[in-house]
């Protein structure tokens, strides 16, 4: 039975199983003001991708994230945590 399940998985669409390539994004998070905020933002990002690298800069109110998750998913998690954000443009 297990073999048949794995066989079906092997023949399924492999694109559905493929993770997005790791990429860096910088988000503006204007409501961050303190260490507690930085921790909450980091935890929100990690709830979407536990392997993400998160660098919070309170001075510039930005978060640099290296993740395989879609930007929209990260932005949604931050919004749910009370930290609205948007992608920083040059």
UniProtKB/TrEMBL annotation:
Residues 23-86 form the HMA domain. The keyword Hydrolase does not apply. It holds the Pfam family HMA. It comes from the Bacteria. CDD domains: HMA. Keywords: Metal-binding. This is Heavy-metal-associated domain-containing protein. It comes from Nitratireductor aquimarinus. The lineage of its organism: Bacteria, Pseudomonadati, Pseudomonadota, Alphaproteobacteria, Hyphomicrobiales.
């Amino acid at each position: 039975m297990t073999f048949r399940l794995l066989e079906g998985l092997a023949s399924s669409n492999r694109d559905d199983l493929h993770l997005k390539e790791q990429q860096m994004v910088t988000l503006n998070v204007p409501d961050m003001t303190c260490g507690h905020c930085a921790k909450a933002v980091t935890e929100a990002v990690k709830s979407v991708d536990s392997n993400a690298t998160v660098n919070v800069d309170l001075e510039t109110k930005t978060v640099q994230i290296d993740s395989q998750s879609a930007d929209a998913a990260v932005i949604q998690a931050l919004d749910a945590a009370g930290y609205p954000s948007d992608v920083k443009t040059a």
